[in-house]
Amino acid sequence: MIELGLARITRLLKNTPIPWRAIHVAGTNGKGSVCAYASAMLNAGNINCGRFTSPHLIDRWDCITINEKSVDEDFFREVEAAVKTKDQSEDIQASEFEILTATAFEIFNREKIEIGVVEVGLGGRNDATNVLEHPAVTVVTKIGKDHQSLLGSTFEEIALHKAGIMKAGVPCIADGSNTTGVLEVLKSNAVEVGAASLLLVPQDADPAGQVWNVVAKEELMDHQQMNICLAFEAVKEVLSHCYPSLDPLRLLPSIPNAVWPGRLQNLTIRSLAGNEREMLLDGAHNNQSAEVLGTYVDQKLREKHRPVTWMIAMSKGKDIHELLYFLLRSGDNLIAVEFGPVEGMPWVCPEEADSILGAARGLGISDSSQILSGDLAQALQVAVRIADGGPLIAAGSLYLVSDILRLLKQAELLSK
């Protein structure tokens, strides 16, 4: 069960100083990418930087990085144990995510980071990461419909939760391509809390042209360009106060090398497929991100007379029909799967594969293959066979992406 609120995390971090400056990032889509781009830039500037994103992909500790490297497992468990001891001794009853957030912040302190790049877990206003009272800058990315049961059913209601990370005297940078209603909510909230400024990208971002001159490539989609610009503006704001002699434009070449697994990630699955086979992984799990992925696939991967083979899993509660509508095309192949248990998030459950297949048939995708939960390796082999050299994509859930990456890691270890 998800219980939002700051009371428990505040008690958990009581008497724990946060001397490092933070880039705090909220939004429905793109916030993880913004964090990855920002930390890559800071690392290129030799700034001791920590990054905290969620959910983890393979191991629970890989969501915490120091200078672009995941923290050591033993170190993570040591700090986590100390946080859990405090939670139990003071009967705080913190949630799993609150424990994780406190662990990340304690690790940042021990590593003496200078800047922390922190992604909101869910929402913003009542998210555990909003215990950050004095961030250097806040960022609000693209707003879409997700977690409506907790955040509201309209873009404006959801935006109000995301805007909750704004702070008095702290500048905020936001995705200017959001709907008019969302932008009005952001502007109103910025005035209400007394934010130092609200910069909308790209219309208010003067150096956007300079950014594109350095990093723009033909293969970048509009949303990737937007996320790069948001990250650049956030880093520029931090540097202007903390490292005024460091030119942020010098750090831009590091962005194309930023690694953000599970988002338009191409990888070879030879150890699972038995041959040199490419697969695209994307954790698109809501309508907006599915639309972006569908556009990318239509423009970059679809070949004449060559259907796309999809491996799709979803979390319960998602709008199956809408998500599939943005991805599937007539003639595509679909293998519906169910991701396994998510460590530390027992409330997350997979949608039944039968339900996904039923929704696909409703869209006219009748030639579907079905693999239920239990043997993802078998499902991948079936997918490779059905794809027959055509595009192969896993999508619909970051938890499915995690399962595939974990399976690939295990297979590679066994082959050594």
TrEMBL record:
GO terms for cellular component: cytosol; mitochondrion. One of its GO terms (molecular function) is metal ion binding. Keywords: ATP-binding, Ligase, Magnesium, Metal-binding, Nucleotide-binding. It comes from the Eukaryota. PROSITE patterns: FOLYLPOLYGLU_SYNT_2. Belongs to the folylpolyglutamate synthase family. This is Dihydrofolate synthetase. It comes from Letharia columbiana.
